[in-house]
Amino acid sequence: MMLTALAITPLTQIPLLLASPGLGWQFAIGAALFLQLACAGAAGTTQRTIRQVVTADGMQARMQAVSTWLTSGGRPVAALLAGGLGTWIGVRPTLVVGTCLLVVPLVVLYRSPLRGLKDMPGSPAVASPSVEAVTPPTPSGPIVPNPAVAVDARRDRSTEGGR
After folding, report:
1. pLDDT confidence of 12, banded at 50, 70, 90?
2. Residues 6+ apart with CB under 8 A from 75
3. Rounded distance, CA 158 to CA 134, Å?
């Protein structure tokens, strides 16, 4: 699923690269963007599922935080670079460069071991915590629900010169 979605995504840029003014091109770009977002949803869901399956339970939050940080943090940098490149070489050549860059994830995934994955792998085993780590220590002595703190609010008048 991920390979198919990543293979279709660069193709959805073709109407944008060929577009000229007119209502027909607007519909073509809209349909291509719809297809591109559907592919992104399919690839992203599959990718997150695999990451969660292969990540130990205790590392799930960190894995998701790093993934979100990388993808969300990369967007402003990419926008800045695309704006600079568009100013330097023009809008259409920059769109061609962006379309070519959409092939990179497909090549990386195609060359990875995930390509041959037919079944979901098992989650890595995590040592379960010992009973001592789960059970809080019991205090020695009587248990007092909410012990009052003894506070002496009186002032020591011996240092005030006998007043």
Report:
1. very high
2. none
3. 52
Structure tokens given for 127:
């040592």
End-to-end CA distance of the chain: 88
DSSP state of 161: T
* Angle, in degrees to the nearest 10, between helices 23-54 and 2-11: 150
Entry pTM: 0.63
Q: What share of the chain is helix, strand, coil (3-state, %, to 5)?
A: 70, 0, 30
For residue 65, the one-letter residue type is: A
| Integer CA distances (angstroms), 79 to 72, 75, 85, 98, 106, in order | 11, 6, 10, 11, 21
> Residue for token digits 């860059």?
101
> Cβ neighbours of residue 128 under 8 Å, at least 6 residues apart?
none
Q: What digits encode the pLDDT tens for the residues 127-139?
A: 555 555 555 555 5
User: Could you give the CA distance from residue 20 to residue 135 in angstroms, rounded to a whole number?
Assistant: 69
Give pLDDT, residue 152: 52
Q: Sign (positive/negative) of CA torsion 83, 18, 23, 5?
A: negative
